[in-house]
Fold this protein.
Amino acid sequence: MNNKISPTSSFLNPDRYFSPDISIRSIARDLYAGTKDLPIVSPHGHTDPRWFAENLPFTDPAHLLITPDHYVFRMLYSQGVGLEKLGIPRLDGGSVEEDPRQIWQLFSQYYYLFAGTPVGAWFDHVFAEVFGMSENLTPENSESFYNTIDTALRTPDFLPRNIVDRFKIEVISTTDDATHTLAHHQVIQDSGWGGKVIPTFRPDGVSNIIHPDWRTNINALGELVGTELTTYSAFINALQIRREFFKNMGATSTDHGVATPLTMELSALEAETIYSKALNNSITAEDTIRFSGHMLMEMARMSIEDGLVMQIHPGSFRNHNEYVFKHFGGDKGADIPIQTEYTRNLHALLNRYGNDQRLKLIVFTLDETNYARELAPLAGHYPALKLGPAWWFNDSIEGMTRFRELTSETASIYNTVGFNDDTRALLSIPARHDLSRRVDANYLAGLVATHRIELGTAREMSQALAYDLVKSAYNL
Amino acid sequence: MNNKISPTSSFLNPDRYFSPDISIRSIARDLYAGTKDLPIVSPHGHTDPRWFAENLPFTDPAHLLITPDHYVFRMLYSQGVGLEKLGIPRLDGGSVEEDPRQIWQLFSQYYYLFAGTPVGAWFDHVFAEVFGMSENLTPENSESFYNTIDTALRTPDFLPRNIVDRFKIEVISTTDDATHTLAHHQVIQDSGWGGKVIPTFRPDGVSNIIHPDWRTNINALGELVGTELTTYSAFINALQIRREFFKNMGATSTDHGVATPLTMELSALEAETIYSKALNNSITAEDTIRFSGHMLMEMARMSIEDGLVMQIHPGSFRNHNEYVFKHFGGDKGADIPIQTEYTRNLHALLNRYGNDQRLKLIVFTLDETNYARELAPLAGHYPALKLGPAWWFNDSIEGMTRFRELTSETASIYNTVGFNDDTRALLSIPARHDLSRRVDANYLAGLVATHRIELGTAREMSQALAYDLVKSAYNL
Amino acid sequence: MNNKISPTSSFLNPDRYFSPDISIRSIARDLYAGTKDLPIVSPHGHTDPRWFAENLPFTDPAHLLITPDHYVFRMLYSQGVGLEKLGIPRLDGGSVEEDPRQIWQLFSQYYYLFAGTPVGAWFDHVFAEVFGMSENLTPENSESFYNTIDTALRTPDFLPRNIVDRFKIEVISTTDDATHTLAHHQVIQDSGWGGKVIPTFRPDGVSNIIHPDWRTNINALGELVGTELTTYSAFINALQIRREFFKNMGATSTDHGVATPLTMELSALEAETIYSKALNNSITAEDTIRFSGHMLMEMARMSIEDGLVMQIHPGSFRNHNEYVFKHFGGDKGADIPIQTEYTRNLHALLNRYGNDQRLKLIVFTLDETNYARELAPLAGHYPALKLGPAWWFNDSIEGMTRFRELTSETASIYNTVGFNDDTRALLSIPARHDLSRRVDANYLAGLVATHRIELGTAREMSQALAYDLVKSAYNL
């Protein structure tokens, strides 16, 4: 069990994702050699802090690798495999498959769907590099894979903290509700373990006034700060208190999931009025949109005050499949991107705060049409704005390549922020960073081979993309 | 006269459309060798069933290859060649060029415009593979080309049924109005000929209440089912009867050309009201849009009942050039794509029917921004949804390559449906399928050469894209 | 000092921008060899005619190469470098850096940002080909670079007219307000110098009724034509007079910068009414949009009458950064693209005038999603419409390549118009044309290497893209 590339691996080629053109490939090898062993910095993701607080073994391969990961089961669902058969819990407590061996076997039958996809690439990496397999998963070897993984999970090497250490994860951020106590983070900090697991402040549950649990969340937020949040100003004050708490717990950033990146500053009166209407359940759709735009302004203002880096993740139509949402809940592979606009939507925020270097605003998109048209020109002008990496469905070999090709010429790589793994799949973290480093090495090698940059320059850029930029962008 | 690739052809290189990188090219050759001789399955196109019913010789090269094909004459028109000079009939019966040799000569003078375009690639294939030419068409050899083709057309080899047989077309679908009697299909079925030519149910003429001939079409539909269609329910009933008729005549699919893919379910009352207003010529623009969205819902419901595969082709601004439309009619190269949205527009239909595996919904787009952003995520989740191939202007070497690069990582190729030739140019059918098989071979070879998939996997995927997926997707 | 590629240049490789694949590269070399020495035709740009009229030496490297060029300083600004430090004049006359050596030194410290960007490519070309440098600019050699350039600028070789001659610029168009006297152009014409510097009629300042200086411009226009422009018809008449004057001064084209390419024909009454409201400062936002759409119709009508080629440049959100606009003015790197639509917006104009071959309409876009979806299909149909080259942020290696890949298959290269350098940076003109010729050579070489076109065809296309098309499209 080690995390080096096994040269005997027939299915995980050491030159994978590099152009077959030897002049590109040889440069890509050179660049990748300089980054492959760098520590992992993971500034944005969805691992569960409880894992690292409790440090208990994972139960079994299926419930580690399949049932929590909507990247995986959505694909089987698209081919007619019921979520129940994959062990996805029903909200009504109805029966679902519980035998992890059955789930694993079913997964193996459909594993061919992932050929040429990023999920397939990550799994192959995990199988080879983490569990020492030397062939592809098939229905035939599925049981053997299961047994190998299951046995490994019972060893100390696979306790969560040991995984973090072994993967050389220098720092990993979780994503946490504004109302979270961060009790797990406290346990981790008190444990004496050297691993650095820090929270990210994600206030969507209280800043989005049409969130289904908004009222409950507001109540919880009020309890945490010891005040009933009956006014907008009390609400804003509570957010500031919680940001301070998160910061004291190690957070360096906030994150905001919004339908659109609209930003607009409301008058104090209008903000108060909408907040009151929300408390009274009488908001309109227009109120919701305006309040969301206003909250982004408020968050930018607070970021300038407290120094937390601000991330915006817009443009996902959440829970598009009402049947799946009703029976299985959110984050079940049914979040679908929508067209997004940045030039006009970010205008208010960038005009108010975008020239202020105390603000670091990192923007993501699911709509690649914005890369060259809006985001690169904006990031190539405003001092506060940086571009987050290719996100979600675009976090792939082709998607990352498009991101570089469409943004670098206008924004330069130095207005981007390195890589986010954005994952809840702990074991795939090295796979994702490795893939990213390879794709960037290949992209830069192409620039060298076409005589756009020199090799020495490419080495500096490669190091920046793999390590330096993320550290500075997220204040890590 | 044969349909093998002639190795002596200097202008139709056996390695055409493959990367010049030898490691990709050698794999592409391998993959293409496995698909090039597979039968052609053509589930969506616009050939004329009369050809196969009457089985008469085509009249001459110009009226076979140029005047019916808006892909061709639009390009000459863009360079100032009047449609009259190309023999396109005027609606007012005004005089147009009638000498096919003059038309052919003019075409040859402008043939250089097609260099590097799919139309050029298809023509070169037809010239070389179907007519045995060994050089490019030029104004100088134009007459010789004409004579060779003209002579060939008078031989039995070039009777329509023999063409189908020689091209190894296993099945070909035509596209037929809901009010069509399918008399030609009946003749074909009764003829004893082994060729399989099946209809597709395309009810746009009756489901689109602003179709210029809507009232006429409704009357014709009523006559066919023996009832006056004075109510919405009578109209719906008539559609069901016609679908059943088409199905009995061999149809396995329906097709729907709509301005936008908006879907929405109207109340029975509203549907009835709009239908009545349409009969009374008093509809609004809003009525038209709502009714179109409702008809897609109805068609999906019927597809679940009768098992016909449902296709949606949205996003074309038909007859953009009013001068051309007024003087020459529709389908004259003046249909221009518009921006299209799927995530919100398909929401109603997918929520109502998208989890039902009895539905097969195949969606096309002319707006490539939807590939990665909306369509691949939707197809990678909903069991009912599959992605149609790169359509129309995107049915090209670069366009097909973009389709694969932008959809495969998220949706997998297994949520796509193989190739459609979508043509009214009978002789180009093998050219189009051959081009598609080559482009897919080259795409998959790139995945192998970059170590994303193994060669054995690529061979399976190549076979799926060329033959298996289309057969299963269209129930053929 | 010559303008040949120096083979000893280590940082300006003679094969730059060509694919490393030898079969593509060798063809690209062949094609490029055929175009590299062709004269430069520059039909659209922003050089200052005063330079060529006065023919005085440029003052110093910083005020020639940095402070006038928003492509350059925007990038440094994005990384926190104040515009004052770069010597950009403040509108309030506040103090800014005036020492060109300090500005140059600061520039050199941030020059690494331009690695892999078009600005970097242009600078490297200027450094090597115009000033004979043989290494990259760094903070260490910055002073030496400055001295070399500064010395050169004091030699006769670097007088503006000599630069034009030395660069083999056959013709260069400037961009000039409708109210400009063209006095500099008159001086040039009277000078006996053989260089051809012609104006372009750009009436935005008078046709855009919300232009901040509109009233002043209208007054100036009235004075020039000797009438007070109190009515719409007087205004239109004045425009016709000015077009005639520009044409007599050598202009062959007009240019129109608009927020959107909306075209619509207003009634004479409405046009008159809006014009009157504009004079009375009582226009609405809707008036502005409608009047803009109407003015494009008027300009097309006049183009048919007087034969001036019409260019439309839509889709830029000008002066997005209000702080920068207020303190430094326009054209400061804060113009950000917005989504643009052509199919519906150009409908009125193309229907009225698009079938008329007397009109040449050249359309540009900053929104690449329109290339394949709207612009190529429109240009591949309407006789009057041609596609302008990749513009502004897309005027880059990747951007030009995307333009070719996304438009050529549908529109053919013969409905495009060659290259525009669009620059106010005189010394970069050969760099930009050279880059364009290389990118096109590489694109065409790819078509040859994949057997889509033959080498002879590629040579013709290469010559067309570098020289023939621009001459015919702009009537030069």
Observations:
- Chain C has a mean pLDDT of 96.
- Chain C touches chain A through 47 residues (CB under 8 Å).
